[in-house]
Amino acid sequence: MPTSFTPLSALIGGALIGLAATYLLATLGRIAGISGIVNAATDRRDDRGWRLAFLIAMVVAAGAWFAWSGAAPRTGFPWVWLAVAGLLVGFGTRLGNGCTSGHGICGLARFSRRSLWAVLVFMGTAFVTVYLVRHVAGGVS
Amino acid sequence: MKRIAHALVAGAIFGLGLAVSGMTNPDKVLNFLDVAGHWDPSLALVMGAALAVATPGFAWLRRRGCTLDGGALPAPPGTRVDRRLLAGSVLFGIGWGLAGYCPGPALANLAHGGADAIVFVVAMLAGSQLARFLAPMEKPA
Q1: Which residues, numbered 77 to 116 in chain B, qualify as contacts with chain A under a Cβ-Cβ cut-off of 8 Å?
Q2: Longest dimension (CA), chain B
């Protein structure tokens, strides 16, 4: 479904994400990479408290904004497609040790060479995937 | 307790940022990745604004050498770009391009309560565990 370019909310939201990452590093000395936080919280009990608190607050705050702004979820996307995508995202971010937030924001913000490579590769692959799905195979939804 | 409070604040700002920026809408993400279609450049501004805040924030903390209350900062990032990092990023990029969800926005969409996000998140957790057992890592980078 087409969406419109929303520069102002993109800049404000992006600044908040950067602020949250800086805040977490300034207070707990931790990197705000969501896949890393999720993986550590599911794998081990030690230090699980702050990770769960971060994740729960993230979901609740997003939900508060959805309620306030009246944002509706996407529906009707094929489940098989979602399941395959989810498996790839989970497998890939564990293997590559990070996702859009960990490599894309925190990693680039600390000039990590690994993160720069990761971002170039996952962005490039995602561009190619969308092109193939939408313009070669004829789209999903 | 103070750590939990800080994590709640950071998570809430992060989740608000995701939702305000529109990145919790997978169509906006897919349209950013679709340069050949109805291109929506919002994601680029989200990342730009996040980096514009986090880069000086992280630099300030690195110069300071510790967190606000004297705690340790994470070790500098590793520099080795290996096959594991690249292969993981390729898989993540494909999954991201298939559904438009990366880990943070996928979790945030749980707040909508719809099946779309639940299917994706369950598959993502499964994919991560699969990678953990099929390709165990010696040490996080």
Answers
A1: 77-81, 84-99, 101-104, 106-116
A2: 50
Number of structural domains in chain B: 1
Model confidence pLDDT, tens digit, residues A56-108: 999 999 999 999 999 999 988 999 999 999 999 999 999 999 999 999 999 99
**Measured between alpha carbons, how far is A22 from B117 in angstroms, rounded to an integer?**
27
Judge contact between B108 and B24, C-beta under 8 A.
Answer: yes
**A34/B9 Cβ within 8 A:** no
Q: What is the pTM of this model?
A: 0.96
Under the banding of pLDDT at 50, 70 and 90, the label for residue B114 is: confident
- The answer to whether residue B140 sits within a structural domain is no
Q: Which domain holds residue B46?
A: 2-134
pLDDT, one tens digit per residue, over B39-78 is 999 999 999 999 999 999 999 999 999 999 999 999 999 9
How many contacts, defined by CB atoms under 8 Å, are there between A and B? Answer: 478
The pLDDT tens digits for B123-135 are 999 999 999 999 8
Look at B3 and A16 and tell me if their CB atoms are within 8 Å: no
Contact B67 A85 (CB under 8 A): no
**CA distances from residue A44 to A39, A47, A48, A49, A128 in whole angstroms, order as listed:** 9, 8, 7, 11, 36
Rounded distance, CA A58 to CA B125, Å?
Answer: 17
Report ipTM for this prediction. Answer: 0.96
B102, A33 Cβ separation under 8 angstroms: no
Q: How far is B21 from chain A (nearest CA, A)?
A: 4
